[in-house]
Amino acid sequence: MISLLMLGSIINYLTRSTLANAAPTLLPELHITPEQYSWILNAFQGTIMLQPFCGYVLDTLGLKMGFAIFAIGWSFISMAHGLAHSWQAFAWLRGFLGLAEGSANPAGMKATSEWFPAKERGFAGGLFNIGASVGSMLAPPLVIWAILHYNWQAAFVVTGGLGLAWVALWLWLYHAPEKHPKLSPAERDHIAAGQEHHLRSDGTRPSVWKIVRQRNFWGIALPRFLADPTWGTLTSWIPLYLNTVRHFNLKEIALTAWLPFLAADLGCMFGGVVVAFLQKRGVSLINARRGAFTLGAVLMTGMAFVGFVESPAVAVALLCLGGFAHQTLSVTVITMSSDLFKRNEVATVAGLAGTCGNAGILVFNFLIGILIVQIGYTPFFIGLGALDLVGTAVLWTLVREHHAASLEGGAR
């Protein structure tokens, strides 16, 4: 099940990364300015902030059918990008794409909470989140291959077609644990025994008002607001940065732009390993996750030096460190939604926290698009190196361990 989800996440991030890797070719051809490009990016960020809607649909309609509907939508919308010939058309399409693709993170968290005991959930969440970096890693060589052999329009058709193929696999293979025909009673009991009793679903629909009144929600949502601009920068701006500042051509971008995402894959697994290491030494689950986040935030400070080094190779290496560090901390804070909230609330909580994360990306995109010509990229790299330290302080201050999601009266 986690392999199937990871494959879906790969396709999701492959389709959303297609535009960034086509940008060095597409922007000059269509005479799109950096500021207009930021508006295109933020059309996506604005609608992907509707993740709470996606999570609510998944919690209400059911994971299997709900996620399939969203995936069909993002596949066709991606293919339609090949028909766009103005920045306004791209902005509309990116807006629709963001709405559909906002389903991925709530779906992954919901499936992880259903299929894995609490002690295995961090590792499973890391595997799922590998999909984000693998999809982003595959995008540079695949998109640039399509551009060099065909045109930029073909890149969107290829990635959208892969999404439709995955939907067929999803509908064929995915089942909830209680309905899976090949799951043994012992395996089903193992999953059930490892679930937190106070977080089991009570059969009611999730209450957004109740969730946002809890300090634990803000304890994971605010660090995401501060952390996610790193991922937005890596996926949306780095190909242009390598092209315009480091003077890489398309082939050089294809050879290097995927490396930070390979490092991010390792970071996904490293976060889970750190949590397991700390738990074996008597640290509680929540504190172990906070410890992994803190370590990732310290490593993220290396990102601040990207703009100061002269060597392009060292700059790429620092970007790789940023990808590794970001996924180390990101996977831990994302997984905490399944540690702190009831099963029937997880997708909605993940969606709300994802909204905060994407709001951070939206603000960062606007600032880059408006200021990049005047001040360059360096101040933004410095900011990325510092924001997660603030997120660490928030995580340790706001999150409480005891029965956080079972509170009926809201925040304590």
Structural features, described:
The protein has 412 residues and is mainly α. The protein has a single domain, classed as Growth Hormone, Chain: A (Up-down Bundle). The protein is built from 18 helices and no strands. It has helices at 2-30, 34-48, 51-61, 63-80, 87-101, 104-115, 118-149, 152-173, 185-193, 208-212, 215-236, 238-244, 250-256, 259-280, 285-300, 312-340, 346-375, 378-398. Helix 4 packs antiparallel against helix 5, helix 7 runs antiparallel to helix 8 (152-173) and helix 7 (118-149) packs antiparallel against helix 13 (250-256). The radius of gyration is 20 Å and the shape is globular. 56% of the residues are buried. Residues 403-412 have low confidence and may be disordered.
